[in-house]
Amino acid sequence: MFGAICAKRAGADVLLLEHTSRIGKKLLATGNGKCNLTNLTIGRGDYRGNHPSFVTPVFEQFTQKQTLGLFEEMGLVWKERNGMVYPYSNQASTVSDLLRAELERLQTKVLTEVRVKEILPVFSTNSERRTKGDYIKKGFLLKTSKGDYTADCVILSCGSRAAPKTGSDGSGYKLAEKLGHSIVEPLPALVQLKAEGNYFKMIAGVRSDCRLHLYIEEKLLAEEYGEVQFTDYGISGIPVFQFSRFAVKALWEKKRVFVLCDFLPEMEAEALYEYLYKKKQRLLSTGNSEDLLLGLLNKKLNLMILKEGGIPVQSKAAGISEKQLKSICRLMKNWKIPLKGYQSFEQGQICQGGVDTKELTKQLESKIHKGLYFAGEIIDIDGRCGGYNLQWAWTSAYVAAVSAALEQ
Length: 408
Ligand SMILES: Cc1cc2nc3c(=O)[nH]c(=O)nc-3n(C[C@H](O)[C@H](O)[C@H](O)COP(=O)(O)OP(=O)(O)OC[C@H]3O[C@@H](n4cnc5c(N)ncnc54)[C@H](O)[C@@H]3O)c2cc1C
Fold this sequence. Notes:
Elements: H1 2-9, E1 15-17, H2 25-29, E2 38-39, E3 47-48, H3 55-59, H4 64-74, E4 78-81, E5 84-87, H5 92-105, E6 109-111, E7 116-123, E8 137-144, E9 147-151, E10 154-156, H6 171-178, E11 183-189, E12 193-195, H7 200-203, E13 207-216, E14 219-230, E15 234-236, H8 238-252, E16 257-262, H9 269-282, H10 289-293, H11 299-308, H12 322-333, E17 335-342, E18 350-355, E19 372-374, E20 382-383, H13 388-407
Parallel strand pairs: 1-6, 10-19
Antiparallel strand pairs: 2-5, 3-20, 4-5, 7-8, 8-9, 11-18, 12-15, 12-17, 13-14, 13-16, 14-15, 16-17
Bound molecules: flavin-adenine dinucleotide.
């Protein structure tokens, strides 16, 4: 939608093909229905992929400031929270409605319920050939569920395999592959992780501010802080989403992956030990082990820690040994969560993987077929949670669209 608008504004004759009944379906689901459309602080490390530095020259051509400028021209009033930008209305539909209105204002041809099945490069016929073997590329033939279309340039922006109910069913990868492009294995990202262990049913539903360290084959790979959501199968929440792409990739590669969870990042291990020691002294005559932890974490987490430490809940606090106190400290500061899997494409917000960036120019044009462009999530670039993925979609769409329009 954004690319069609930019190409139209740059003077191209544009046709937008969409196979569902409505354009912009995924936008409605973004940001919990509020659409976190960009982030004012984009830096190194916010984008991942086999070649993450690929995004730098692309962003130099169209920044988040320019994106917001374009949305403002369409009439968007926005607000910002910790760098994350939302429509002032708090409604994701505001963004998709504005894009639709702009497409209409520009009289852009939009066809829904048209599935693109194949894209064929078209070459000059024998009679048009200048010399023997000199075939001239003439554009593309698009084979669709509703007949054939021709185009000088094509921007392939079919999304990924994430949230396929919104239309992104992975067919874009197949279209790209048939055109000779390599696809880096698409896997879920910004996704919940499944853990080993018997304690998850016990703590399902608990949310707690934790510091998480992700280890792959014993090597520390990422660190995140924020509200972790414990579920009956494992861990979820923003900090988990942020490093999930690394965990998923490693699990897919059959590597050993675990997370160390610090339930009390604000409290040093020594301070925690002192707290527990003093508390135990207070409870010498009365109180059990559960009372010892009362006041620290969510009750379910306290119970889980006791069980993990092999300390019976009803045992007298006075009987807890120094070794057991140290074990409680270790579990609270460094609870080891071995990971065994991840949720599916249906649950993942985005995909990692996609069209190999080595085969694209910084204008997002295919190095294999002149006039073929890519934009958005179909490319092997995935962003952190916080507006970065939509910003990649806007930026890549703008760059591809303007280059394609100039080529026409
Ligand atoms: C629940 C959820 C919440 C999210 N929240 C945010 C957020 O707040 N901020 C953020 O930055 N990102 C968010 N994202 C990610 C963001 O929505 C995507 O990265 C972005 O929409 C990708 O844009 P795209 O145009 O590449 O693909 P899509 O938005 O998936 O659009 C691709 C379109 O192509 C159509 N299509 C596919 N194949 C064909 C075909 N063969 N023929 C015709 N049409 C086809 C699809 O139907 C679809 O309409 C969220 C994603 C989800 C699932």
